[in-house]
Amino acid sequence: MKAIVIASLAWVLFPAMGAAAGRSPASQQSTQQPIPKVKVGGAVGAKANSPTPAPAAKNQSQKTSIGTGKLSVKASQASSFWTEEVDLEDDGSVESTDFLYDAGRGIVYMYREDDFICQDGQPGRAKMMEAVYTTGNKAGKPVGSGWYTVGLNEGKCGAKKAGQYGCRFDANGNPTECGAATINYATGEVDVAVVQ
Asked: How much of the chain is helix, strand and coil, in % rounded to 5?
């Protein structure tokens, strides 16, 4: 009799546990957000500590904005602009990157087209804006911290609609807040709708 009861309990419990286990990955997938992973390399921190063009930099001038469309920033004043071939992600790949150093805000902006990885591991390539805080920045942020945002097409990384997605990062390049991102043209900062 005990064997029948135990067998009955096993049939009741194990299918339920299996179903629950089957739901876990699906629920994890449904909460997975379209946040691109962009590695913040040593060259980003170097620009925070020395926001100047490299000797081989091109297109040196003064500009009041950087980027295009929704991936653009308007500077607080005419600012140093230049283009460099640089590896910002420490991945061995050198990318042509536009830089704009807004000394009034204490921010170096970097605009480029580069590779990234989706949360699900799929690779992608898109235009992106990255910013890093320098000494004496008006936002009072740690030097070397900053943010990045990537323009994603609908469906890329699971994005339900085209838009900007990115993260704030600390002075060690570790993401601290990630979600849908919007560049605030008035402040030159990024607003992140944080993913819970």
From this structure: 20, 45, 35
d(CA 36, CA 110): 17
Closest alpha carbon to 128 in 80, 168, 74, 70:
70
* Pair of tokens at residue 62: 């003064």
Q: Which residues contact 176 (CB under 8 A, 6 or more apart)?
A: 167, 168, 169, 170
pLDDT band at residue 9 using 50, 70 and 90 as cut-offs: very low
H-assigned helices in 1-41: 2-31
The set of long-range contacts for 3-11, using a CB threshold of 8 Å and a minimum separation of 24, is: none
Q: What is the pLDDT of residues 116-147, one digit of tens each?
A: 999 888 899 999 999 999 999 999 999 999 99
DSSP state of 36: -
pTM above 0.90?
A: no
Tokens for 186?
């008035």
Tokens coding 67: 């980027």
Residues 61, 78, 76: CA angle, nearest 5 degrees: 140
Tokens linked to 50: 């020395």
Considering Cα of 24, then 26, then 31, then 37, what sign does the dihedral take? Answer: positive
Mean predicted lDDT score pLDDT of the chain: 85
Q: Identify which of 37, 196, 195, 40 has the alpha carbon closest to the alpha carbon of residue 122.
A: 37
